[in-house]
Amino acid sequence: MRQLLPVDHADAILLGRIETREGPTPIVLRDGEIEDLSRFAPTISDLIDRLAPGELPPRGRSLGAIDALVFRPDWEGGMETRLLSPIDLQCIKASGVTFAISAIERVIEERARGDALEADRIREDFQARLGGDIRAVKPGSESAMQLKALLIADGMWSQYLEVAIGKDAEIFTKAPVLSSVGAGADIGVRGDSEWNNPEPEVAIMCDPRGHARGATLANDVNLRDIEGRSALLLGKAKDNNASCALGPFIRLFDDRFTLDDIRRSVISLEIEGPDNFRLEGSSSMGMISRDPLDLIGQTIGASHQYPDGFVLLLGTMFAPIEDRSEAGRGFTHKRGDIVRIATPKLGALVNRVVACEDAPPWTVGIGALMRNLVSRGLIQ
Questions:
Q1: Distance (Å, rounded) from C-alpha 331 to C-alpha 321?
Q2: Cα–Cα distance for residue pair 78/182, rounded to 1 Å
Q3: Kind and range of the H or E run holding 310
Q4: Contact present, 6 and 216 (Cβ < 8 Å)
Q5: Which residues pair with 270 in a beta bridge?
Q6: How far is Cα 216 from Cα 244, in angstroms, rounded to an integer?
Q7: How far apart (Å, rounded) are the C-alpha atoms in residues 376 and 269?
């Protein structure tokens, strides 16, 4: 289990969910122990709503020492006590194209047709006409609108740049409530997708009032070929069986772990394939164009509420381009890839890639969860 935990887990308050013989159970990891919190709050959503910001969860029934729980992913036989996604009734939202410089650079690279010197020339031309570094452009600012005008005049505008540097962020619903998978589970890629990749991200958990209460890691699996055909296919590209992984645990914000830690974090990605392929990369949150609080503010407000809270994936600047099977075809997943997403203060999220059609079907919805909680006497 320790290989999944934050490096400073002894100083962290970690919430999660496990599958016990009774059913899905909210837990807290602290002081080297795993505690069952179901008698205080039957769901993570309810637990967060009951706790004031900064308040510690009450003591729960001990389920044993953390070191006694050996992590074994599903594809290696699984654990007697399975880790589930650390959220339950929260809505799963995501934000896209939040690293403006990567979107702008992609447009420049496409115009330069792979010529690095030509890309430098285009970039320098924009900076000269803009009167500043395009890397410093903030979405919605006057300089962003000037850059937009330049790009349009040069025939380089796109709908992705609209959300990259415009005033409105791209916020969408990634997956249905209760459909995300946790650490050690299979993640799904549609069988008809031929170009896809993982998206290593940080996800912020918010209460019903929109207050950021904690963070976890996420894999917002991306089908580049399907979304690339049309932005209107975003739902088909993003929302599929087992296509959203979260975990391993939610780390609550406190005086030792704050949003500033998220703003400074670097998210690493490792992929090991059954073909002996290996890829490593990272995404620095320091380069995000929209602050997490801005993204949260564009998710909840007078026009949209979340009575059970929500989790918001913040986006990534990582898009693997390394060729895998054929020269010039870039990266795409193969069945059996092991994906590890990690950052020191949140731990590691590990999953195996399978076809969505081969991943365990999603069967425990809200109705099934409520019936289980009633049968256990946890709700009336």
A1: 5
A2: 12
A3: strand 310-313
A4: no
A5: 280, 340
A6: 13
A7: 39
User: Taking all residues of the chain, what is their mean pLDDT, rounded to a whole number?
Assistant: 90
Question: 178 in helix, strand or coil?
Answer: coil
Q: Cα(303)–Cα(297) distance, rounded to whole angstroms?
A: 11
Q: Within 13 Å and on the Cβ side, how many CA atoms surround 147?
A: 34
Report the C-alpha gap between 38 and 376 in whole angstroms: 10
8 A C-beta contact, residue 178 and residue 90? no
Structure tokens at 239: 């929302």
* Residue 192: pLDDT over 90: yes
Residue 106's pLDDT is what? Answer: 67
- Give the tokens for residue 126: 């924009």
For residue 335, what are the CA distances in angstroms to 73, 109, 184, 200?
A: 16, 30, 15, 18
Structure tokens at 213: 């209460």
Strand ranges in 31-102 using DSSP code E only, listed in sequence order: 33-36, 61-65, 82-84, 91-96
The span from the CA of 357 to the CA of 266, in Å, is 33
Transcribe 208-259 into DSSP letters: TT--EEEEEEEEE-EEHHHHHH-GGGHHHHH--TT-EEEEEEEEEPBTTB-H
User: Beta-carbon neighbour count of residue 49 at 10 Å?
Assistant: 17
Instruction: Determine the length of the chain.
Output: 380
Write the CA distances from 276 to 31, 188, 259, 271, 334, integer angstroms: 39, 20, 37, 10, 11
> Residue 376 corresponds to which tokens in the numbers above?
């256990």
Query: Which pair of structure tokens corresponds to residue 231?
Result: 């932005």
Provide the b/e sequence for 196-222 (b: ≥16 CB within 10 Å): bbbbbbbbbbbbbebebbbbbbbbbbb
Residues facing residue 196 across a β-bridge: 223
Selection from 328, 320, 218 nearest residue 277 by Cα: 320
Instruction: For residue 327, give Cα distances in angstroms to 87, 108, 222.
Output: 40, 22, 21
Beta partners for 17? 26, 84
Q: State the amino acid at position 258 in one-letter form.
A: T
Cα→Cα distances 92→127, 205, 218, Å: 38, 9, 11
SS3 content of the chain, % helix, strand, coil (to 5): 30, 30, 45
Phi and psi (nearest 5°) for 336? 100, -5
Question: Which CATH number applies to 2-96+170-375?
Answer: 3.90.850.10
Question: What is the model's pLDDT at position 160?
Answer: 79
- Give residue-wise pLDDT tens across range 47-92: 999 999 989 999 999 999 988 877 888 898 877 778 999 999 999 9
